[in-house]
Amino acid sequence: MLFMRLGDQLTDHFRLIDAQKAALRKLGVTTVRDLLYHFPSRYEQGGDEAQIAGLVSGQEASIIGTLEKLETKKGWKSRIPMSEGYLRDSTGRIKLRWFNQPYIAKMYADGTLVKAVGKVSGSADKIYLANPQLQKISATEAGLFGKQGAEQKLVAENGLVEPTQTVTRGPFLWQVSAPPDLFAVYPESRGITSLWFRSAIKKILEQKIEAEDSIPAPLLKKYNLPTLHTALVWAHQPKELKVAEAARKRFAFEEVFMIQLERQRERVLQSREKSFSIEATHKDISEFMAEFPFEATVAQKKAIDTILGDMRAGHPMSRLLEGDVGSGKTAVAAVAAYAAVHTRPPAQSFGTLQVAYMAPTEILAKQHFESFIKFFEHFPINIGLITGSGCYKFPSKVSGGVTNISRAQLLKWVANGEIPVLIGTHALIEKSVQFKHLALVVIDEQHRFGTSQRRKLAKKDKQLPHLLSMTATPIPRTLALTIYGDLDLTLLDEMPPGRKKIITEIVRPAERAKAYEHMRGLLKEGRQAYVICPRIDEPDPDKAFALLAKSVKAEAKRLKKDIFPEYEIDILHSKMTPKEKDAVMARFSNHEIDILVATSVVEVGVNVPNATMIMVEGAERFGLSQLHQLRGRVVRSNHQAYCFVVPESRGESTTARLKALVTAKNGFELAEQDLLQRGPGELAGRKQWGISDIGMEALKNLKLVEAARTEALELIKKDETLSRHPLLAEMVSSRAAQAHFE
Ligand code: ADP
Ligand code: MG
Asked: How far is the CA of 697 from the centre of ligand 2 (A)?
């Protein structure tokens, strides 16, 4: 018998048919460890099953028994194809009927042990179970069911009875001696059942497996966490829910701890690296900022000071600037960029240091390009823009304005340093883009950008560029601590002065007309508006959703025809090409469009100060923090701005949830509420963080997250390279390898 190790392939220990292999692969389960870390999605209680003797018509029943005489038939009068058969337990047998499901008879062999759930139908003397759901179960599981003490002999003819086992309770002979009270139900995939998971995991847990605990023993003790082996048994075969929860807590801690170790190690790694020392003086910076059309807020000034301090130190900065929409992050980025391009490269007589500024969409990249042109008006440098659909440079040698240039030309000027500031989309980090002295990378609304990505960008120079990451995505504190563990955090917690608070109102569908009149008033004053709908228009497989949720295309038509015939209306959604989107945004910007009907694509950063009203249809389909970000679209000007949220349903809870939009002080508060009310699954962008379901559950628990972080920091302080913790080193590296695909 092979000795089992966590890293072993499942196929070394289990005979798997192709369908099972495919299903496991789909679930990401290939090794023994994967299988043991494939945790149940819930637990079911045995023991509520009925016995066949005593069933009465009309009753919903759940019965354990064996299948007999399954066959396909045609209904006597109706000619409807159906399946029929019998279910037998120790008290008798009952007919089973499935109408219109002839294939069921072919799916199960006679003698199969199942749990059947369905309605007892028919007249008193001729009852049958109508369209029962069948769930195959194992003999062991069967022991979980049934009534205490109903000790009866089972006819052994179906061959399921194992003679060595003794009856302790229940109607079956194969009762195990101490049956657990709960059994695990797993996230399944076609081709593999919970039953398979239970028996495979049981097989593993019954052996001596070579598995060192990845949480150091002192920590287990300190936080009173079960050991790996105990926790595995508790998670997969709990005797009571309490121990299952304790086990899940342990695995959640383990995951957050691993993420933290990776982030903290990354942080130490970066602090050892060299970077450009950026030497702009306070005087230089004040001169640059004196040309701004506004006075920087206190929060902006503080952030700028911190950033300049970081970049002076000679090691790469890794900082996250978090601020609500409209808090003025672009200006902070512009000052950081100025400081870089104001600094000469070391031992170099020509040119300046360079800056790359990456935005998630073309629309945003263009807006940043335009903002930068204004910010740098009084400072003669070239600014480039690179997107999938074209390249631009400012200023043109001929006209002095923006000019369209070829990609090759742009790349040449970036490579030789003539273009010190390059703004763009993802196109910016393609291999072909080579900088001469890249000193600062600014990332707008991106989540992960670690050492390896920076190194790719900086390959020409040996030094790592500084990183300024910026986000308006309000996320709960626990999540920020976890995923941004390697970054220093600066909050921009102050809005530029003069901004009026957005008036937010929850509008019931019946009051829509009033909302439109309000909008008409604003349009008459020369303002513009957004109308946000939950979907575009493509047929939705979920009919109920399609019927209820307003679509961009239909709503735009309806508004034009019935409500606002006198105004120009157009649409924006994610299925449009970047060119089409840009064209629409340009026309909206120039006020050639009055009402823009859009999906949540406008969520990220679009800036049209004259748009002062946003109406969100189907509001309950969005998370609170997403609604908050949508609302941020109209925060741009000094006109009074309005946000009308229109839920589809009139439910009290919907209204209560949406009211938080009126009362919350900032986006972070709303993100916390999303986490508590809708659960971690609803946090926007969760896929890209690479955190499992169990890990996400942990995010509800600030204490746990803080403990995992503190301990990871302590450990890394004592053992930077994890050389004294080889198992942790291995686990962290494999996590990092996965994460860096982002
Ligand atoms: P975000 O933080 O959402 O990226 P932006 O940088 O786009 O915000 O700034 C939003 C608007 O506020 C822009 O029009 C910008 O010029 C303006 N702004 C930024 N800082 C200030 C300030 N201190 N005072 C007045 N207006 C400002
Ligand atoms: Mg922005």
From this structure: 30
β-strands 318-323, 466-471 pairing: parallel
Q: How far apart are CA 189 and CA 191, in angstroms?
A: 6
- Dump pLDDT digits (tens) for 323-379: 887 889 999 999 999 999 998 877 665 778 999 999 988 888 999 999 999 999 888
Q: What's the CA-to-centroid distance between 573 and ligand 1, angstroms?
A: 25
Neighbours of 645 (CB within 10 A): 26
What distance in Å separates the CA atoms of residue 231 and residue 210, rounded to the nearest whole number? 15
628: nearest Cα among 664, 589, 652: 664
DSSP 110: T
Atom of ligand 1 at shortest distance to CA of 329?
A: 2
pLDDT of residue 475: 82
Q: Are 87 and 94 in contact (CB under 8 A)?
A: yes
CA distance readout (Å), 91 to 70, 153, 172, 175, 701: 20, 10, 11, 16, 49
What separation in Å is there between the alpha carbon of 599 and the centre of ligand 1? 24
Strands 92-99 and 81-89, sheet pairing: antiparallel
Kindly indicate the confidence band of residue 258, based on its pLDDT and cuts at 50, 70 and 90: very high
pTM for the full predicted model = 0.72
**Nearest in space to 279 (alpha carbons), one of 346, 347, 340, 353:** 340
Sequence-distant (≥ 6) Cβ neighbours of residue 72 within 8 angstroms: 81, 82, 83, 102, 105, 106
377-390 burial, b at 16+ Cβ within 10 Å, e below that, comes to eeeebbbbbbbeeb
What's the rounded Cα separation, in Å, for the pair 327 and 90? 72
**Binding pocket residue ranges, ligand 1, CB within 6 Å:** 294, 296-297, 300, 323, 325-331, 472, 496, 607, 636
Region of residue 16 (left: phi > 0; alpha: psi -120 to 50; beta: else): beta
Q: Which strand ranges, in their side-by-side order, compose the sheet holding 403-405? A: 403-405, 390-394, 383-387, 421-424, 354-358, 438-444, 466-471, 318-323, 488-492
CA distance linking residue 80 with residue 74, whole number of Å: 5
Angle between helices 667-678 and 624-631 (to 10 degrees): 150
DSSP 8-state code for residue 560: I
Taking residues 661-674, what's their average pLDDT? 83
Structure tokens at 218: 């002192």
Name the token pair of 15.
């005979």
Cβ neighbors of 87 (< 8 A, separation 6 or more) are 52, 63, 65, 66, 67, 68, 93, 94, 96, 114, 116, 129, 132
Cβ-in-10-Å burial (0-12, 13-18, 19+) of 303 comes to buried
DSSP strand E in 13-59: where?
42-45
Given a contact cutoff of 8 angstroms between Cβ atoms, the answer to whether 31 and 16 are in contact is no
Model confidence pLDDT, tens digit, residues 200-249:
998 898 887 777 888 999 999 999 999 999 999 999 999 888 999 999 99
For ligand 1, what atom is nearest to the CA of residue 323? Answer: 2
| Three-state DSSP state, 131 | strand
DSSP 8-class letter at 628: H
- Do 589 and 570 form a contact (C-beta atoms < 8 A)? no
Distance CA 742, CA 739 (A): 6
